[in-house]
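dumping this here before i forget
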Amino acid sequence: MQQGCDFINKHLKTLKNVPLFIGMHEDDLEEMLNCLGANKKLYKKDSIVISVGDSISSVGIILSGSARIVKEDIDGNLNIVSELQTSDIFAEVFACSGALSSISVVTQTDCEILFVEFEKVINTCSSSCKFNSKLIENMLRLIASKNIQLHDKIEILSKRSTREKLLEYFAKQIEISDSNKFKIPFTRNEMADFLCVDRSALSRELGKLRDEGIIRFYKNNFEVIK
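structure:
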């Protein structure tokens, strides 16, 4: 991977927004990435980055493009776990636990992905790098944040009806965006997969909520009225 100044300059804005690198001085980025064994890979759209059963030792960072974490049940039904956009991190939980991957990561567009070795993030560098303690702190915060997101997803899926799942999902989106108007990253089929509901039932319930004056929507743009 090109880890010199050209690489840093090209991806500086993205790297500064990566949760793992928050608080790092940009002058330290090149040295830090070299210390972490950073390796950039390119993926075409619809490529599989991680498969179920893979052994994970590195953390992935989206430099450009988008991807999706998915899980397939025993009947072959697809569940969208989460969306990955620029600066997002994935696979840190599996790299930390040593467990084999129970999810797949699939690119939605052409992607540039940076991989850093998890053990080099959490273990003290032989060179006693000045940024090592900050990396460990950021990783702990990141894993804690992902646990909260997982709890939120479980809370949504624990609702019994399609209507209840939708309302809980909308409530989470309002909280995230700090607005009753927001845009979701899913098509209707993808939204049904994310909420683990039938596509037709989802469309019917969206129509009912709109007719009752609870929501307005156009394509992926939603507004919760009351």
